[in-house]
Amino acid sequence: MKIINVPIKNNEYQINIGKGLIKGVSKYLDTKRNYIIITDSNIPKEYIADISSKINIKGTVVFPPGESTKSFENAEKGVNELHKLQANKDIVLIALGGGVIGDLTGFIASIYLRGVDFVQIPTSLLAQVDSSIGGKVAINTQYMKNGVGNFKQPLCVLIDPNTLETLPKRHYNNGMGEVIKHALIDGKELYKGLIGNEYYPIEEIIYQSILIKREIVLKDVFDNNIRNILNFGHTIGHAIEQQSNYEILHGEAISIGMYLMSKNTSYRDTLELLLNKFSLPKSYDYSVDSLMKFIVLDKKIVNNQINKITIKEPGNPLIERVKIGSIKEYL
Ligand code: ADP
Ligand code: ZN
Prior knowledge:
By secondary structure, the protein is an alpha/beta fold. It has eleven helices and eleven strands. The protein has helices spanning 45-52, 72-84, 99-111, 125-131, 169-186, 189-196, 202-219, 234-243, 250-261, 268-277, 288-295; strands spanning 2-6, 13-17, 34-40, 56-63, 92-97, 117-122, 136-139, 148-151, 156-159, 305-311, 317-323. The strands form four sheets. It has a four-stranded parallel β-sheet, with helices on both faces. A three-stranded mixed β-sheet has the order 1-2-9, covered by helices on one side. Strands 7-8 form a two-stranded antiparallel sheet. A hairpin with an 8-residue loop joins strand 7 (136-139) and strand 8 (148-151). The model has no long low-confidence stretch (mean pLDDT 96). The structure holds adenosine-5'-diphosphate and zinc ion. Zinc ion (ZN) is lined by residues 130, 178, 234, 250, 254.
C-alpha cells in the first residue's frame, strides 16, 4: 500500500495505491455519506458490487464506453440522472472507470448544484498514472478535445492495480505512453527502471509516475506555465487523435508526438525501444495540413505563437514560444 499526499491549497487530498483496495473502499471513504457511482458499460460489474457492498450507494449511472461519451449531451444526461436520484449538495460522485469517465464525472461534479464532491477510482492505466491526478476535468466539443472544462480536485483518488487485469492489452499499452512521457520528463528512477529492468512492477510504475506528475502540478496548479511540460508530444498527439476521430487512442497519438518531437536528440533510440516494447506507434499517415487544422486551435496560442515543448535529454524539458508554423518542421 502506498500513499501520496497532494497538498493543494484548500483542496488537500490523498492518492492511495494498493492491490485489492477496491474491496476495502470503506477504509478511505466517509461511510456516513451518500454516493452515486458513475461508470461505463465495459467496467466489470464486480467492481461496482465490491464498492456498493461497503458504502451507501444511492444509484449508479452507466454511460456507453468511448471518447465520444465526453460530450455536452452526456453531461446534461448525467445531471438529469442526479436530479432523478434526488442527489443534493452532500452527494459524493464516484468516477469508476478510465479517463473518459473520470473527466466526465469530474466535470459533472464541478457544475451540478454549482459543485459537489467527487472521488476518483481510476481503472485504466492511463487514468491511474495521469488523468485522475491534477484536477483537470473536461468534455470534448465538436471542434476540440477537452474544449470545455474545469479545475476540480477530488476528495481522494483510490487506485487498485488489480483492476488492470481486466483492462484490454491495447489500453494497457496506451497508458504506458503517458508513463514513458513522465519518465522522459523526469529522467531519474522511472526512466532507469523502464530501460533497465525486464520486469518493473506495475505498482511501482504507477507510484513513480504519479510522483512526477504531482511535483509539476503542485508548482502550477492552474496550468499557467511550468505544467505545460506535461504536454510533451501533445500538440501533435491531440491533432492526430482528433484527425483519426479518436480511432488512434490518446497514449498512442502522443507516442507519435513524442517520437517526432525527439528528432535529433541523443535519447531517440531509447525512446524507440520503449515505444516498441509496448507496441506504441511512431508514425501517422495523414497530410500535414489536416493536422495543422487542429494545431491552430491550440488553447495556448497568443499572437500566433504556440508553446513548443521538447526534451533536450531525459530530465531536461524545455518550453519555448514559437510561431505556429514552425511545428511543421516536426510533422
Ligand atoms: P482512457 O482511460 O485511456 O482515457 P477510457 O476511459 O475510454 O480511456 O478507457 C479505455 C477503455 O477501457 C474503455 O472502453 C473502458 O470502458 C475500458 N476500461 C477501463 N478500465 C477497465 C478495466 N479495469 N477493465 C476493463 N475495461 C476497462
Ligand atoms: Zn495526455
